[in-house]
Design a protein that fits this description.
GO terms for molecular function: copper ion binding; DNA binding; DNA-binding transcription factor activity. Its main location: cytoplasm. By secondary structure, the chain is mostly helical. It is 62% helix and 3% strand. It has two domains: 54 residues, Multidrug-efflux Transporter Regulator, Chain: A, Domain 2 (Orthogonal Bundle), CATH 1.10.1660; 52 residues. The radius of gyration is 22 Å and the shape is elongated.
Length: 140
């Protein structure tokens, strides 16, 4: 199947599939005229990557997971360790987001939201402590 069909079957955009090929996560075959040719195995790997990325695993985690998936002699403890590390990062991020939410809730509550120019939200942004956490939209 071609890249469009593989994209539809795996749930990934063609652009993402090209990127995964570029960084070596997948290696589709090429047909006689140089077009990518995806078989069932490649589509399965793409769906695997889609699911792993959907769960928030980084590209390097996905590389490791694919390596473990391909290794018939793998130890499940290796997979569990990688997943447990990821879970710990999720828990840490949840704690960061909860702290961020508490700060924002306090600021919103402190703002009168009326016609006066004074605003505790802007005051805090201008003079409050620097944040050291990552942006909530950052994906690795």
């Amino acid at each position: 199947m071609n890249i469009g069909e593989a994209a539809a079957a795996s749930g990934l955009p063609a652009k993402t599939i090209r990127y995964y090929e570029e960084i070596g996560l997948i290696r589709p075959k090429r047909d006689g005229n140089g077009y990518r040719a995806f078989g069932a195995d490649e589509v399965h790997r793409l769906a695997f990557l889609n699911r792993a990325r959907g769960l928030g695993f980084s590209i390097e985690d996905c590389r490791a997971l694919l390596g473990l998936y391909d290794d018939a002699s793998r130890a499940s403890e290796d997979v569990k360790r990688l997943a447990a590390d990821h879970l710990a990062r999720i828990d840490s991020r949840i704690a960061e987001l909860q702290a961020m939410r508490a700060t924002m809730a306090g600021l919103v509550s402190a703002c009168a939201g009326d016609g006066r120019p004074d605003c505790p939200i802007l005051e805090d942004l201008a003079t409050g402590p620097l944040c050291t956490h990552r942006s909530p939209t950052r994906r690795e």
